[in-house]
Amino acid sequence: MDQNRLFLAIAISVAIMLGFQVLMPHPKTVPHLAAPANGPNETTLNQSPTPAPLGTPGGQLAGTNAAASAAALAQVPRLKIVAPRVEGSMSLVGARLDYLVLRDYHETIKRTSPLVQLLEPLGQKKPYYIQYGWSAAPGTTTKLPGDDTRWTPSAPTLSPNSPVTLSWDNGAGVTFQIVLSVDNDYMFTAKQAVVNRSGAPVSVFPWARIRRDYTPVTLGYYLLHEGPLGVVKGTLQEMTYAKVKSAAKDHDGLAFQGSDDGGWAGITDKYWLTAVIPDQISPVTIAFRHLTQDGGDRYQVDFVHDEAETVAPGAQAATTTRVFAGAKVVQLLDHYGAEYHIPGFWRAVDFG
Q: Exposed e or buried b for every residue in 317-336, given b needs 16+ CB within 10 A?
């Protein structure tokens, strides 16, 4: 009798597992498209400069239909992005990576449904973007690029075989550059460089941030984290949107802060992830933030270098930042973690 019950329990367990695999939705893939032929006001927090919140966004569009999206994208000059698994563009005003479509995934299981759009520009219904920048060292007066800075690209299109350099001259002998590259999957690399042709040293703090200027609808599962997360000093930090909002309320917008020689931070959805990753040898401060602007919620995940980068006259210096923007494929996260020494990068996937 006990043996029959054991066999029955095993059969029921197998049936449940098979049913789960059949009934639960999974991202559908489509064949790769052909690649192109050619190949703010600075603030301080515990004596550390922080990426300041963006200015007031422009008017929102009524919807996110194709015509409205095209019109919004056409309002500013853009750098085209074409890669095997992503395509989109980057705003050359403010150096914002703000329009990205995942070429392997549709919004539903129907192949005729739209591809998943991960990032969205300012002025649209759900702004979600990544930005690079510098903060000035205390006591310095170097003119820095800001949200309205118009960058000049070295080429019109960024692809795996064609890196692009964005440049801006501050008019006082200092040129800021963002040297961009993208691989065949979901990793962008940005070398943030400062070229000093002035007669005085220049001291700046490089930073990168992710902004989500709305509160997304989440599934609300206890075993599935959606929201800001990161690994700081080897420890996984996770906060829901509600927790970020609550924690930031009494701390001038700061919900979490931690320092590390590297680490990473990002925002995760059920299937997708955006993450900013500093080089893994420089001390940085990682933060989760929330602010209320124009009656709406603004969430930010960022890092800033703890030590000023000082560039002597006639010299140049650069730091490397990586950005992941794509699907949470465990094998791929493991690969990136090993290749770039990113601690616990696979932990972006919540195994419950």
A: bbbbbbbbbbbbbeebbeeb
Longest Cα–Cα distance in the chain: 90
Residue 110: name the closest of 34, 26, 216 by CA: 26
Closest C-alpha among 284, 285, 264 to residue 274: 264
Q: Tokens 């616990």 label which residue?
A: 344
Q: How confident is the model at residue 17 (pLDDT cuts 50, 70, 90)?
A: low
> How far apart (Å, rounded) are the C-alpha atoms in residues 23 and 111?
18
Q: Is 162 helix (H, G, I), strand (E, B) or coil?
A: strand
Identify the residue with better confidence: 320 or 16.
320
| pLDDT 10s digits, 298-348 | 999 999 999 999 999 999 999 999 999 999 999 999 999 999 999 999 999
Tokens of 230: 């990161």
DSSP state of 52: P
Buried b / exposed e along 182-206 (16+ C-beta atoms within 10 A): bbebbbbbbbbbbbbebeeebbbbb
Sorted by sequence, the CB contacts under 8 Å of residue 57 that are 6+ apart come out as: 122, 123, 127, 213, 293, 294
Q: Which residues contact 133 (CB under 8 A, 6 or more apart)?
A: 40, 51, 95, 144, 145, 146, 206, 207, 208, 209
- Of residues 173, 170, 134, 208, the one with CA closest to residue 315: 173
Angle at 347 between CA 345 and CA 348, to 5 degrees: 80
Q: Residues 239, 242, 243, 246: is their CA dihedral positive or negative?
A: positive
Predicted TM-score of the model (pTM): 0.80
Bridge partners for 28 per DSSP: none
